[in-house]
Write a structure and sequence with these properties.
Helix content is 38%, strand content 19%. By secondary structure, the protein is an alpha/beta fold. It is elongated, with a radius of gyration of 23 Å.
Amino acid sequence: MARKFSRAHGEAHRDGGSAFGSERSPGHYGVAHAGGHRADQQQRRARIEVEFDEQTMLGSLFGQFDQNLVLIENRLGVYISARGNKAVIEGPDDAVARTRDVLKGMHQRLLTGHELDAGAIDALIAMSNEPTLEGIITGAPEGAPPIMIRTRKKTIIPRSNTQIAYMRALIANDVIFALGPAGTGKTYLAVAQAVAQLINGSVQRLILSRPAVEAGERLGFLPGDMKEKVDPYLRPLYDALYDCMPPEQVERRMASGEIEIAPIAFMRGRTLADAFVILDEAQNTTPAQMKMFLTRFGQNSRMVVCGDPKQVDLPGGPAASGLNDAVKRLEGVDGIGTVRFTRDDVVRHPIVGRIVEAYEGNEA
């Protein structure tokens, strides 16, 4: 059913966008569903036409050579025909309804000035199975302020229900444990929230830390001064920072001490007041390190502890992890929130979710 990416579609390409005007369904008709179901299974099909009142965003909505529509077709098993300012969706009725909601979500992102890339579309497709899709798109019930994080370089909105819960926890709790596999946005959203609070003045410092533990190999002694030795371990934190702030601001704030990036060993003996503190890869801390880190908490501070309990690189495995120990001891304590991500929340390339599922399935 899915078409190749290179299809030619002259009328669909516009430098312009749209407001949803009307959509009509001529009804359902029963045919055999072609695709991963049993050959004898019959499934109702639908045809819906969605019309756009304006044409100033159609190019961005449909994508170059209709690549966005092809992506949706491949993922949902529908056929989308774009002609002028209309898109006709055909396929199994549930998939057609999901496709309509995905197009609305894509359109909403464009209207609010957000980027529309393959990752955003994949996230909308993943969420289209849930009845609260419209709430996820807007970030809040109708009339309530949207849930988003504004930084100097971009505005970030949640891409899953768990990210919504996480972004709310980042505002409501003093200490937040964010648990789950890679690619779910745990560290990225924490850094974005920290940058937003640093910019608006609600905290005076941003402190990013992680244990200097290699993933399954021993690198030996690294050359250079202390900063050069620990920088390779902290590179993911730098990447998130530079994605949320202009590079010159990052460098200036690091030089002034407003942003500090350091291994967890440097935290001993300090009291971190007026600070947003993030500990990444926390599964590789020992219980003693985790206790030391958590007790650094000071006045007017917020602390986020991110990690994947299944990816422990310490000798002794998960049983030796300070993250697992801390969650068992502290979950439910007033002022401490715990958010658990699953492979369904992976917002990187879809293949990352499939890789996580394959590995976790083998461990089950």
